[in-house]
Design a protein that fits this description.
Elements (H helix, E strand, L loop, with lengths): L3 H16 L1 H15 L10 H6 L5 H15 L6 H12 L7 H17 L5 H29 L7 E11 L4 E8 L13 E7 L5 E7 L8 E7 L10 H9 L5 E5 L15 E6 L3 H13 L6 E7 L8 H10 L3 E7 L11 E4 L1
Parallel strand pairs: 7-8, 8-9, 9-10
Antiparallel strand pairs: 1-2, 1-6, 2-5, 3-4, 3-6
Helix pairs in contact: 1-4, 1-7, 2-4, 2-6, 4-7, 5-7, 6-7, 9-10
The structure holds flavin-adenine dinucleotide and protoporphyrin IX containing FE.
């Protein structure tokens, strides 16, 4: 809970902090990477930094949290916190790093807002930051412990066993553990972070949904090549497509992610996806098919055309094996279809 004194200050300064959030985010990351350049090697996603939209997420979430503390003090934004904590865990973020982020964020707020940041204002925003930080650290500790890992041990080496072409732009990697340690089971809908070595010797993390239920010692994920269309091509998806082959070794985190299948309640399930967004849906359908689920299941999927529909053979086989499942597809290029979808629509 925020102290009464800080609540009044936060209420009064939320509009000005909110109005300058883009500037604060830019200044925060400049400061963070100037003081801790090592965070650009394997921790922060440089594509997100260049693209801009994701850049405001961290600082923006502190403002969202402050707003919730002021407006609904008894209700913390649990969905936001859980999503962030899973993302952090998939990157092996450690409690000590919260001080580093704190210093850069408070520095940025003072730099952008200047004299408006009196000692009283600074103290109130410190309080918000540490309330959020301790909440995240606590949730992350629970997530690491449930997985049986520590921040330093989320990474595992995997051999690429198969590389399967799905469409012109998507490939599926089937990977197998390189040692005989047990595979940490995944929940349907979860993702792994792939730690990609770059030609300049640094590493870049990217998340990929597990696109099939785990099978023994192996896991599967599916990668769409990102074409720049005037901007740079996607760094990691291009490397995965062009340079990673059967027999190579990849470094993957154990699975994380809080958007997971809830089939225990026995309610009907509706999945809606477009393009490469099929990957977590395919993972969940695969789980339902292996479990022999009798639930009513509807998949709604949109794509460019049938040829562009990644994982279509696997998905249609799983749908066919489920007694009460159907698939309704929308293709931008028209309703031409060779595969046995329940309904196909143009558009
Ligand atoms: C939870 C989660 C699950 C995911 N699951 C999947 C999945 O199953 N399959 C899948 O294919 N993807 C998935 N993704 C997306 C994936 O993590 C990557 O973001 C994706 O592969 C692109 O990474 P990249 O390195 O190829 O592109 P990046 O190099 O990160 O580029 C991303 C974008 O930034 C633009 N950009 C880069 N540099 C600049 C610049 N200087 N100026 C302007 N724009 C620039 C690029 O043009 C591109 O559009 C998932 C993401 C999340 C968060
Ligand atoms: C209170 C403190 C923090 C808040 C409020 C916060 C908030 C966020 C939010 C909202 C996201 C985006 C989540 C998503 O895309 O789903 C994010 C991602 C991320 N956070 Fe944090 N975070 C905090 C602390 C930290 C710390 C201490 C680190 C470690 C240095 C860190 C590193 C990252 C990284 C690497 C990402 C992935 C984003 C990317 O690479 O673009 N965060 N955080």
């Amino acid at each position: 809970m925020l102290s009464d004194k800080s609540r009044l200050v936060i209420e009064a300064t939320l509009p000005v902090v909110g109005a300058h959030i883009q500037e604060i985010a830019d200044c925060f990351y400049r400061r963070l990477f100037d003081t801790h350049p090592e965070l650009l090697d394997g921790v922060f996603n440089r594509g997100n930094q260049a693209e801009g939209t994701q850049k405001v997420a961290l600082a923006g979430s502190v403002v969202a949290f402050a707003t919730a503390l002021v407006n609904t003090p008894d209700q913390l934004p649990e969905n936001l916190l859980s999503r962030v904590a899973h993302k952090h865990a998939s990157l092996g973020i450690e409690p000590d790093q919260y001080k580093v982020v704190h210093d850069a964020l408070m520095w940025a707020i003072a730099d952008v807002l200047g004299d408006a940041v009196t000692p009283e204002v600074a103290a109130a925003w410190e309080e918000v930051y540490w309330l959020m930080a301790y909440t995240l650290i606590h949730i992350e500790r629970g997530i690491y412990s449930a997985r049986g890992v520590r921040p330093q041990t989320v990474w595992r080496q995997w051999d690429v066993q198969q590389k399967l072409r799905e469409t012109d732009d998507a490939v599926t990697f089937v990977v197998e553990r390189t040692d005989d340690r047990l595979v940490k089971t995944s929940l349907p809908g979860q993702y792994v972070t792939v730690q990609m070595p770059l030609p300049d010797g640094t590493r870049q993390p990217r998340q990929y949904s597990l696109s099939r239920a785990d099978k023994g010692q192996s896991r599967q994920f599916t990668v769409k090549r990102v074409h720049g269309a005037g901007k740079p091509d996607g760094v990691c998806s291009t490397l995965l497509h062009d340079t990673v082959n059967v027999g190579d070794v990849l470094t993957l985190s154990v699975p994380f992610g809080d958007v997971t299948l809830d089939d225990a309640a026995g309610r009907p399930l509706v999945f809606a996806s477009a393009g490469i967004g099929i990957t977590p849906m395919a993972g969940m359908l695969s789980h339902l098919a292996s479990a022999g689920s009798g639930l009513p299941i509807v998949l709604l999927h949109a794509d460019h055309d049938e040829e562009s529909f990644a994982l279509r053979q696997q998905v249609l086989t799983d749908i066919a094996s489920l007694p009460h499942a159907s698939i309704h597809a929308w293709y931008e290029q028209g309703a031409d279809s060779l595969l046995p979808a329940t309904r196909v629509f143009p558009g």
